[in-house]
## 1
Amino acid sequence: MYEFRPATDRIWHLRELIRDRVLRIDAERAVLWTEASKKYENVVPIIKRPLSLYELCKNMTILFEDFEIIIGNKSPYFFGSPQYPEWIGQGWFLEPIKNGEWPLKDGMYYNPEGEQVRLSISQEDYEALLSIQDYWKDRRVTTVADAWQPDGFDELKRLNVSSYADGGMGMTCLSPGHLIAGYDKIIGKGYAAIRREAQDWLDAHRGDLMGEDMNKYMFYKSATIACDAAILLVKRYAQACLDKAAACADDKRKAELLKMGDSLMWISENPARSFWEAVQGIMMYQILINLETRIPSPALGRFDQWTWPYLKRDLESGALTMDEAQEIVDAFFLKANCYYNAGPDKLVKTTGIGNTYQHTTIGGVDPSTGEDATNPITYMVLETVGRLKLHDPTISLRINKNSPDRLWDCALETSRLVGGLPLFQNDEVIIPALQAELGFELYDARNYGIIGCQEIVGCGCDFPAPNGIYPPHASVWWGSIFDMAINNGRNPFNGEQASLKTGYLYEMSSIEEVREAVARMGRYIMKLFISANNYAEYISPYYSTQPALSISMTGCMEKGLDAVMGGCKYNSYGGTATGLATLGDALTTIKYMCFDKKKCTTRALYDAVMANWEGCEPLRQQILNEVPHYGNADPYADMEVKWCVDLYYDICQELYSVRSKKYKSGLYGASDHVAQGYLTWATPDGRKLGEPIADAMSPCQSRDSNGPTAVFVSACCFDHHHYLGGIALNLRMHPTVLSRGDGIAKLRDMTKAYFENGGMEVQYNVVDTATLRQAQADPTKYRDLVVRIAGYSAYFVELGHDLQNDIIARHENRL
């Protein structure tokens, strides 16, 4: 079995601080951004935004701890959570504090005992945030979107079939994007060279701006300001290192700080020269783009590929040892664990209490040669996650036909220690699909990465907007669509009637009529949903440009066009259909019970569903125990799931925006299947109101009973090449599978066979039901137990009870 290196004492110290974190809500960014916004009140947004960023980089607190070797903070507090008043209000915590719901202890307010997320805020920060509330009341990006919407949006909201719902997420509450920035360009070219490129264009066109030149002028001017902000920020961190070194009494740490300061001063303008400079350069850019806006997307991309050339050179020259390099990798991912955003307790239901969205992609092939590109850093990243038992960032391991067995061993040992990590992604499916579906050039297709939950994107060249142009508008609720389709267009959850009427189940005489009703309703709702997304995209180019991001993205500097405006080399769009196994099983139930076996009438089944199965338990149990289910290699059930996913893909082919002619379909979800369950009426497969729908593309909970190979057979009933939004397939394995060499080999070979048969992705929870039950009963004993939900991993004991039960309900597999 694969053995991991030990971690150093200061790495363990940092890890324990992170594990016991209490997030501190921070007012500094909000106050500084407000002051800049007032200063530049009437400046056009494309210039106002980078000017505000510059003011922030100039005046923010520079913080790092004495034991850190990779540094960078977005806040004056070690676990600070900065606020973005231009995007979203702070009422979710300001009002409870004002109402006395947060107790005050020693000058700090703390959220109530029993909430999953541990939060605090000082009196000073609370008062500072209160003081700026009135200014932002009518100045947020969403102010414009909320003031008027196109026809049809009111119907979409009242139907309660998506995140655009009454009381749901605002249309523009998070910034546009969700992507992988061009980190390799930043560390390989440097800010000064990028700035010079922009300035050269400005100098050449001074006083001579005709036609489209003005658009380019505004972009290049914003780019120079963004570069100035980046250079200033990194130099301030450099000086902080040098200042700490001057006051340091420990000779070893003093030398380390001096070296860090000199290196930071260099990379403030120039390309990285060493492994440490490359890693620190990525982190500094990460800080910059997250200061600019709220989650453009902080996914870190192909970290091992971008940093390996620098480490290789350091190892060859003797400047660094493998153990020293491992400590740098450890420090990098621990630093990434300091960037959680505070949020209300209800978010535990859908995102857990710790998800930074810094999805990191390792392994895969060389984009130039197509050969396996596994390198020492690939293993180091897995060792960091496994040894330190980190649930975040999410790690995707790209697998190809030449991936070495040692890499499999390392990855599966990581999965044994840390549930659901890494995610296994299949290059042999994804690379040709990117070429065929999205027109990616071969180099860019080979260079793909994963973001968010599962979304497949180009690295540093793609503005994919896979969760709507303004996240998190990724999906419609297909369970509700199904219920509306068999209820003449009325949502039984809230009684709201759609403009489209489809008839009642008891009026339908064949499974084909049922499918047609679902297809009509699905197409209708999807087009309403995408129309709302497209209206939001209409707003974004003026209000939401991102010059600090755009300077690194292929296409933007070449075109003189911001990423939000379509400047990137590739522009796509997309969303996801969570839990289509529930729809498939519902169709199978109707076909089996009503039309093929004639076990009950369509009227009886309709009445049972509309009654939420009250008084119909014998029928419900017959359905649960007799009807075939997806996940068991049964073509009778699998064909209905295939019909559902194919329908979703076909509808997506009809959707597009001005910026993107392609709407990608995905089959993933964070833990949206649990949240959707609360809002989706009962379904014909025997599911009751409030119960989760199927997670992502996995079988419905406990409906798979024929083992993991049967799940894989069912999962390959449709063409995975079509689903470039990404696919998430969860399997729970008993720990005995990975406790012995033959079990490891069997799981590896089974996964390979699934990939050879066209499977795109799989992720394994390695934990038994007994352990999960014990963890519920005694959380302190299992505080480091990591599990995979669907699109993210979390410490099991920090999940809400419904999420815990959802994990427990999944079938436990053995080999």
Note: The chain is about 50% helix and 10% strand.
## 2
Amino acid sequence: MTGAFDRPSYALAADLDRALGDPDAADGPFSYAEIVAHEENDALPPDAVELIRSWGFAQYLVPEEFGGGLRNLEQLALLTRVLARRNLTVSVMFGSALLGVNSVWLWGTEEQRARVARGMLDGSLACFAVSEPDHGSDLGTNETSAARDGDTFILTGEKWPVGNATRGRFVTVYATVEGLGQSLLLLDKEQLDAGSWDNHPFVKTVGLRGHDLSGITFRGTRVPEDALLGRPGAGLTGILQVLQITRTAIGALSVGTMDSVLRIALRHAQERVLYGQPIHHLPVIRRHLVGAYLDLLIAECTLQPVTRSLSVAPSRLSLWSSVVKYLVPTLGEEVVREAGLVLGARSYLREGVASGAFQKLQRDHAIASIFEGTTHVNLHGIAAQLPAVARVAQRPAPGGEDILRQLFDWSEEAPVWRPAGRALRLTNATEDEITRGWGEAVTRARQVAESELPAAEGGALVTVLDAFSARRTAFYARIADGALDAATAEAQDIAAEHCVHHAAASCLYTWLYSFERERGSAGGTGWLVLVLARLLRRLDPADPAAELDEGLLPALEKLILASLDGPEYFSLRTVKAAAGAA
């Protein structure tokens, strides 16, 4: 993560990475050996949370505007990726805290923001008490109620399951408030009457062992009137908007997991000798490892610009956050599966390779597709917006060039996030520069292919772009000309394909805006051809353009191996640095 291309956020993440240490080391609270040993007892390693707090992680949950260190969501995603690379359980603990306080940053009063900021910076946690045992994601059905009693409310109801419900001091509660409707309330447990509420035992889970997934019951709990958070009666809208931020951030959990499992599998493939040679030389093992690495690059290209959009174009998050929440964890699941195939029988063991950490990572990552809206919920949200997007998909968005450059140009960090609930919306309408900029981007890519690239590489790029363009044109025309019922299985498939087109465009823009100096060098464009072919394969495995170009693979494989034991992540920034040095 270090180098000439790093900006302050990357340097900050590198500092955290050093503080946590080498996960393959024999000791330390973030070593695989310690993590796995304590997970056997449903616990976190002693001193793990304290180490994170002493490093100062909590300040990056509090925006700069309110006295913390959080500059933007891109910064927090980079830090989360570092943490998730070791221990998803600890990452989710802090992620649940972020979810619990984001409503305060967006809509809180000056006093609410100041009190919560002080508490978070002092080490307190928070939770988002929305789900109920009988209703799950049916947010329209909410049995928790708050009845008026003078200048207070009497709160009654049960919320479960809730991350940090027991450990959290601050509780953002979704309740039906008498005379106001569905609203959010900000509670501070330190100010609640003892005996008027209680926590549930931790839920036993397959993964994330040691995480506080519990619940809270209110039994006539007296709550001050100034606990109201945001606009009265707008609780459901607020939930849908705040989830856009954490849905995006979840992508960092997946990318961190991808980095870890790929690293574990690749190291095993180098050390494991069969038939007289390390197994990474076997064609089938090679295919799994290369495919997993390309999926990680795709996930990174998809995630990073959407984290930046919170500061650049927050109104787009209603659609873009769902794309990230569906596609990145899906890619993560596939990378875990590819790594498991490389490990073979050892993927099933809770000891041995990497101290058995692969099993933990596999179980922990399964949550990524479930919380903050399941895969089906996010695909439904995408499908509901696609007709409007499809009708303008062939027309560049006004001002799109400026927004795309801010999203995809790494030479500048994302602007500082100034939390404002009014900036988030429930629908993008036709605002989707990532979809609408494809045509112009392909034209520019063709010009680069003709003027800057070797003939073979330029030809391969044009071939895969043409294949994508033909499919894309027909895809959006079909949606624009018909009616799409978002509740159908067909709509889910259509939404999933849109996510692939979104990812392909994101990869292309990353190359155009952040590889301007490197794209003519060795490795500076080959990665783009390979990831586009990999994405095309998801749509049509039989398309000749979906075959990985064997001539482009050796340079990529060399880079993967070179990154294995160095400080760098498996990342496009490593690809960029290598191309720049070529």
Note: The chain has a mean pLDDT of 95.
